[in-house]
């Protein structure tokens, strides 16, 4: 394990590209406005109404995907299987593939675990009442550090996990990013379908998870792992085996 961390430190020090400007002020401004508009326009109707039974059933069917436990297990499995393959396989190509898989596992683990921890800390500190208690407390009821799950609505932890997971895959496999974005929105909104969160909770969670994955990808790129930084600072997924055109072949 000591050799592993030493290797990361060497990679970080070798990196010739500095941390890029993220224009975080503009992004934060957009996110805050999206959450605020959602609170003003959508949260009250959602809290005051009852979802149709069919919508609830669909939400209950899909919402378990946002549970971080199984995603964490898969990421750990990918990491250790990749490391084992790197040790056991013989060919250089196979070893490179195994190492690539292990770093994908490490990236997914980092994004899902630490974004989830941050979301849980924020929701306890903010203490917003869940939609189940709309008629008792309204949508602007905040009881920080109450220790009760009924006051842990903002941001949505499931939505943060979903946002982190699908943002990570959108960065790793940008060809399918539209599909990943659609899946993230649908699965995050299941928290509204089942009555566990307001729409603004979900939007905030998606934004938190997505931006956490982006920042983690930038750190990985700085270490030369999985990503490289484009001139504008955006992390681009590395191709494991780039195509090399033969001379004279178009």
Descriptive tags:
250 residues; mainly alpha; single chain; two-stranded antiparallel sheet; disordered C terminus
Structure, described:
There is one protein chain. This protein is an all-alpha fold. Helices cover 66% and strands 2% of the residues. It contains nine helices and two strands. The chain has helices at 2-14, 24-48, 53-62, 68-88, 92-126, 134-137, 157-172, 177-193, 199-222, and strands at residues 227-229, 235-237. The chain has a two-stranded antiparallel ribbon. Strand 1 (227-229) and strand 2 (235-237) form a beta hairpin. The longest helix is centred in the middle third of the chain and has 35 residues, at 92-126. The radius of gyration is 21 Å and the shape is elongated. The termini are far apart.
Short description:
The protein has 250 residues and is mainly alpha-helical. The protein is 66% helix and 2% strand.
List the helices and strands and how they pair.
Elements: H1 2-14, H2 24-48, H3 53-62, H4 68-88, H5 92-126, H6 134-137, H7 157-172, H8 177-193, H9 199-222, E1 227-229, E2 235-237
Antiparallel strand pairs: 1-2
Helix pairs in contact: 2-9, 3-8, 4-5, 5-7, 5-9, 7-8, 7-9, 8-9
């Amino acid at each position: 394990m000591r050799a592993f961390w030493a290797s990361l430190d060497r990679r970080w020090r070798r990196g010739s590209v500095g941390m890029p400007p993220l224009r975080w002020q503009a992004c934060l401004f957009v996110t805050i406005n999206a959450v605020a508009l959602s609170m003003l326009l959508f949260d009250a109707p959602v809290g005051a109404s009852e979802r149709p039974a069919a919508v609830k059933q669909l939400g209950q069917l899909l919402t378990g995907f946002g549970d971080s436990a199984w995603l964490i297990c898969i990421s750990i499995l990918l990491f250790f299987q990749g490391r084992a393959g790197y040790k056991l396989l013989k060919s250089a190509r196979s070893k490179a593939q195994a190492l690539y898989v292990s770093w994908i596992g490490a990236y997914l683990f980092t994004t899902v675990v630490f974004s989830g921890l941050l979301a849980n800390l924020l929701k306890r500190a903010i203490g917003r009442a869940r939609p189940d208690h709309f008629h008792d407390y309204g949508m602007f009821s905040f009881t920080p550090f109450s220790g009760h799950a009924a006051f842990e609505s903002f941001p949505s932890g499931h939505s943060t996990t979903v946002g982190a997971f699908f943002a990570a895959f959108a960065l790793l496999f940008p060809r399918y990013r539209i599909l990943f974005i659609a899946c993230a929105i649908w699965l995050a909104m299941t928290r509204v379908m089942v009555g566990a969160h307001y729409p603004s909770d979900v939007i905030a969670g998606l934004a938190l998870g997505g931006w956490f994955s982006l920042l983690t990808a930038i750190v990985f790129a700085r270490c030369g792992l999985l990503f490289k930084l484009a001139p504008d600072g955006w992390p681009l997924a590395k191709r494991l085996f780039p195509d090399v055109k033969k001379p004279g072949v178009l």
